[in-house]
Amino acid sequence: MRKPLVIGNWKMNGSQRSVGQLLDGIAGVANLDIEVAVCPPFVYLAEVAARISGSGIRLAAQTLSEHESGAYTGEVAGSMLADVGCQYVLVGHSERRRLFGETDVRVARQFERARGAGITPVLCVGEDAAERNAGATWQVLHRQLEAIADVAGWEALGKSVIAYEPVWAIGTGATASPAQVQAVQVRVRNLLGSGGGATRLLYGGSVSEANAAELFAQPDVDGVLVGGASLQAEEFMAICRLAVGGSWKPW
Ligand code: PEP
């Protein structure tokens, strides 16, 4: 069975104070029979790790360096993330690809660094609006997935978490329809081959309390990656509760 996974990506938001308040507000997710992870900004990772210790909430990072260690000012290594207790790390988030020039090749190196540090990569893939309108959605996703498989292998890809995040739906309020998401997830799972049955496939892009239930109802949506709504404790809690309703998916 694939256990539902809900990840809150806090992006570059918050303060020591607000992070504490947010964690207090979502403490109840620990009682739900799903997996929940939060991705605080780097500077709050250690503090969040201490606060969630023993709660069942997992720690995740928003990105990592493609390098192992050394003279890379400003970068954070996978081993450091593991050292502070991260179990997951996002790789290839569209904001990193678009705003910080992360190419498929670089994302593949980051993916490998995460695995090397014993952290499960959450690979983000997705097309932008022009690519969807041009009918190139699958072409883009296939390229992004193959770039990882070329370096890490399909088996390793299948052991990661894959988040389908159409760029046009991130932070815009425009969610992909459940049918659009399901159609993509089936193709991703088929591409992964026999190992793909156990892979958790998430959806991300303006997920909210209002649309989460119909997303979780899709047979190949095993969880969600939540940006904006993860900053509101009540709304994030509501999304997590709906994930329980989506139930564990058999394979
Ligand atoms: C994200 O940051 O991955 C995301 C999906 O953001 P939002 O939920 O705000 O669209």
What keywords describe this structure?
251 residues, alpha/beta, TIM Barrel, 11 helices, 16% strand, binds phosphoenolpyruvate
Fold and architecture overview:
- The structure is a single chain.
- The protein has 251 residues and is of the alpha/beta class.
- It has one domain (5-244): TIM Barrel, CATH 3.20.20.70.
- Helices cover 41% and strands 16% of the residues.
- It has helices spanning 16-25, 45-52, 78-83, 94-99, 104-116, 129-133, 137-152, 154-158, 178-192, 212-216, 233-246, and strands spanning 5-9, 35-39, 58-61, 86-91, 120-125, 161-164, 200-204, 223-226.
- An 8-stranded parallel β-barrel has the order 1-2-3-4-5-6-7-8, surrounded by 5 helices.
- α1 runs parallel beside α2 and α5 (104-116) crosses α7 (137-152).
- The radius of gyration is 17 Å and the shape is globular.
How is this fold's topology laid out?
Layout: E1 5-9, H1 16-25, E2 35-39, H2 45-52, E3 58-61, H3 78-83, E4 86-91, H4 94-99, H5 104-116, E5 120-125, H6 129-133, H7 137-152, H8 154-158, E6 161-164, H9 178-192, E7 200-204, H10 212-216, E8 223-226, H11 233-246
Parallel strand pairs: 1-2, 1-8, 2-3, 3-4, 4-5, 5-6, 6-7, 7-8
The structure holds phosphoenolpyruvate.
Phosphoenolpyruvate binds next to strand 8.
